């Protein structure tokens, strides 16, 4: 072939030439032998391809990672966290009771968030001790206390002050007395002594139907015939002010001859009326004597007086300083406390400091000796110095509190406050009062931290939550395995054979799936008792139906395909067709569809346990939640953390499951 | 169509009879639930049980029947010794009572000697009222959110809605209820912490609906939203919608007139079935919020072994779920005439 040249003139009148070389027209592969060549790129399998697709789905990967972390935690945390302190300074066997309801803590106290503190509001302020009533001063975060203004309350409170006793009359009937009376306890007045009666009344607006009325003050006493008599000290008046009555003078004027008034009561009385209810406000009523020297009589006088209405209405209870309230006045009408003043305060409380901070404790000599390295010998019933034991402190009982010296950092005792000694029967007992750092006393080297707090019996919520998660996961996986295996076999048979077999098996599934799962579960629990196996069984009874129907559909899809026909023509048995040909093809779809059974089992378990019908002796998440349910309003973290974990595991399982489904079955992508 | 409906209803009836029979037999295999109370009330209970055919009343001991349940000498000096009948006898007596007298037995604990059916009837009202309010709120809201998400597919709105839906579907309902109660009732004090009693003022009773309705709605709003989004997305990518646009309809017109109508076909039946399904009530919600409905009744009765009440309650739940299934299938045919349920090849 030779070179050829073509020339032509194009539409723009240009002369163009085309050269055709004979080389350009040669066949490239003529007479060559062509063989299969190996792919330069790496071959991929279905699983690898699916994994690649899965990794592209970012949310699913995140879900899988969170899921992985939670599962690892579930199996590691319950083993890794020990219940009791490991440090050696512990003198006692540690009980959880002390540390109940500690708030969750990660940061140091006072940082404001997740720091083991609890906000208290509207707590009565103890004005005597200058602290919120019933709380430890050292555990209150500095400068966090805000004290409110005075508030009025109408019922007794140990930390309230003052107020009035509101004496109200009853509605008069034919049989009722003429007056409603507020009366002191009895006292025998000997007019050789001098007595003063100070009663303070006030005009208050009670803002209800009661009307402020006239009152009178009298002394009721028993005469020689034990008949009750009265001596009017002040007749009816509406003079609401402080009244001073010279008791012995007034009485001598009334009955000059009588000098002993036995079983006498001071009474404030208001009339009962048929059409309205009267009232009078008594602020205080004090009977005193300047001449009385006998201490018993003075105490008795104090006991029949009241100077503080709040204290008087709290008879039988103790006041802010721990003393029992005295001075009871009885009443034939109605007696209320009115407008006692109280201060409330809001503050932040370090729950850890309250339990594990410094506190006063009393020790015997033996306890102190243990810290000095003495060991008890049960054979000789005596203590000896063991050189191998650490010596925490040095202390000499004979010298006293000055001799105390702390020798180690982890010495639980900060200082000795006082020491007392009681001898008797040849035995000397020392009581040594110390300021103790309680966490060191319990054997912790530093203040313990519970990142999820502790529950009502002082258990670490972090540990029991993940322990619960472990139980729930195990239950989920066990149920999944059983349901999956059974559902697979059932669905395969039903789908492969079809016809009458299918119809009968389908009706059976209909009946089982028609029974509400809660019914199945309750029947199982009622018959077999509440334990792990029963629970698993109850969940399995209805759980396999999903897998079975999924498998059945897949079998219908594949059983008429050509490769099955080919295999059957070659003489393959039913077993071989089911397990070697159809199942492997359908497996991806079936597994991904069924894997979401695990979270749904956890969900069901949590729900039924939360209702109180479920596992009672295992710590599943649902049981933990159900136990903590009652603390919703007071210690909400007990519910929040386990709930957060269960929500997290559900979300990550769903993300993971959806990603898995998309990866194995790209045609379903995007649909939910 | 009518034939198919009748067939399906009969089938559902048959299934429910089988389920109830199995449950009855299983429950009767449990130890006999002896009543508590005064002699007179116990006597009334046993007399009733004899009338129902579950227990036999003899005047002298018969060791062949096993251990007697209760021995009583009534005011007329007649001795009554009660024995349990064999389960088969009880079963037929029970069937006869239901078919002839509609008598489902009496309660032993919840309201002693009151007809169990009556107890259910008095309590189902509260359950229904709470659920209806929740459906009324959640259906439009769920569908609207779903439409919004589908229209803004793969944009930020869609991602936000889909994520929220994912989160709310994953969080168990009791967590949601607890949080709602904690924030709206305990911490802020806006709403009552418990279902208000009948005697409470109207305002409180209305406020009392908020937490139950919210907690029931979250789940169904998410469900509808997800379903609507999926359906609408599928319809939006179909050829006939493209055709509608090419013939000159605006996006809004094509969506409202074509896409939405077709997307509603599977959505509407699911609303219907949900409407029936919710009558069963939420046990968790009723238990936690103290709503005196049939869900809570079930748990109370179960914990107190008041089997007759449990049994009627179970019957209600089972019937409701079966009916929901039938209604779902039938409504397909009504909404989309092309679908012929139960048609042969």
Largest interface: A-B, 37 and 45 residues
What is the architecture of the largest domain in chain B at the second tier of CATH? Orthogonal Bundle
Mean pLDDT of chain B: 82
- Radius of gyration over C-alpha positions of chain B, nearest whole angstrom: 26 Å
* Poorly predicted ranges of chain A: 88-93
Our estimate of the beta-strand percent of chain B is under 5%
Structural class of chain B: mainly alpha
Total DSSP helices of chain A: 17
The main pleated sheet of chain A reads as:
6 strands, mixed
Number of beta-strand segments of chain A: 25
Question: Roughly what fraction of the amino acids of chain A lie in strands?
Answer: 15-25%
Structural class of chain A: alpha+beta
- Specify the oligomeric state: heterodimer
Q: How would a textbook summarize the main sheet of chain B?
A: 3 strands, antiparallel
CATH class of the largest domain in chain B: Mainly Alpha
